[in-house]
Amino acid sequence: MKLLMREINHRIKNQYAVILSVIAQSAARELDIKAFERRVRERIMALSHSQDLLSSVDWAGVDLKALISHQVRPFDTSGAFSCSGPEILLDANAVLNIGMALHELVINHVQFSGTELSDVELSWTVSGDPDGEQFKLIWRETGVREPDLLARGNGFGSLVLKRIVAAALGGTSTWNATEDAIIWTLIAPLPRIKIGIE
Length: 198
Known about the structure:
The chain has helices at 2-29, 33-56, 64-72, 92-113, 156-168; strands at 62-63, 81-84, 89-90, 119-127, 134-142, 172-177, 181-189. It is α+β, with helices and mostly antiparallel strands. The chain has one domain: Histidine kinase-like ATPase, C-terminal domain (Heat Shock Protein 90, 2-Layer Sandwich). Strands 2-4-5-7-6 form a 5-stranded mixed β-sheet, with helices on one face. A two-stranded antiparallel sheet has the order 1-3. Helix 2 (33-56) crosses helix 4 and helix 3 (64-72) packs parallel to helix 4 (92-113). The longest helix has 28 residues, at 2-29. The two termini are 26 Å apart. The mean pLDDT is 79.
């Protein structure tokens, strides 16, 4: 029982640390109080969706497709939205961080790209030998209204997609924009993503 309580306490403190970071980083980048309140609420709700998924499986691993569905469902993505890749169970850290990235990507898609005009293809792969397998996730959005959303400045979404998620998962991320497409790529060691790796 003491071990269980210590584990619960550790996880709650981690969640508080993430929430405090979201508030601090959002506050530093939002000039309008109403916009700040709205964005913080949205981001904390996105973390809550990830937490609900983890709780529903007793922290035993969340299917990536389920995480995508949970992060996309609250928004109107009336354009084509497809996802494909092998079945993979994410550990808690990957669920929270990839969930945060997906939230920022979906928000940008809805607010700036125009869901009726742009399409999203989300795909992931696992490659390499068993000792050095790599996880690769690609968000490809075509027909965008504004090609380089992250060029707007140093917003919290930019920080999440360019630095925070990759650092938390021991990997790298890139953001490429063309005239009519944006592509975000995350590459990380599979043991930092998948649950149950010995």
